[in-house]
Amino acid sequence: MTAYRDQYASLFHDGRGIVVLGISNDSPEALHSWLKDADFPFLFASDAENHGATYTKFGGTLRASGSVQDRTVIVVGPDGRVAGVMQKFNQVDPQAYKDLGAIIDKVTPAPEGQ
């Protein structure tokens, strides 16, 4: 997740009108602490009480234990609609960032000069 944070300005066009959401089984308290400590500029949602139901509605699959199988990135555009869902986001794969950038560019083009 630190790779997201470190590429935020360029990849997300400084966050103009874009909401990036990650869903996990962690408790709200744990997610809040992690976000605060690492200074992440995006949102996490806890699906702990729903036992993965929210995550699966976005196309994610659960392990037999009920925990999140893969990292899924949900991009919400300026119009409030889901612009794209990357069900299996590999944060160490450069192609994943190119694919994510393509989703973001569709709903909020980069400012001139970028």
For the CA atoms, what is the radius of gyration?
14 Å
Ranges where pLDDT stays below 50 over 5 or more residues in a row are none
Give the domain tally. 1
CATH topology: Glutaredoxin
Quantity of strands, as a count: 4
Biggest β-sheet: strands ordered side by side in the sheet: 2-1-3-4
Characterize the quaternary organization of these chains: single chain
- Largest sheet, described in full? 4 strands, mixed
How does CATH name the architecture?
3-Layer(aba) Sandwich
Q: Brief overview, please?
A:
This protein has 114 residues and is α+β, with helices and mostly antiparallel strands. The chain has helices at 2-11, 28-38, 53-57, 94-107, and strands at 19-24, 43-46, 73-76, 82-86. Helix content is 35%, strand content 17%.
What does this 3D model show about the protein?
With 114 residues, the chain is of the alpha+beta class. The protein has one domain (2-107): Glutaredoxin (3-Layer(aba) Sandwich), CATH 3.40.30. It has helices spanning 2-11, 28-38, 53-57, 94-107, and strands at residues 19-24, 43-46, 73-76, 82-86. Strands 2-1-3-4 form a 4-stranded mixed β-sheet. Strand 3 and strand 4 (82-86) form a beta hairpin. The chain is globular and about 45 Å long. It starts with a helix and ends in a 7-residue tail after the last helix.
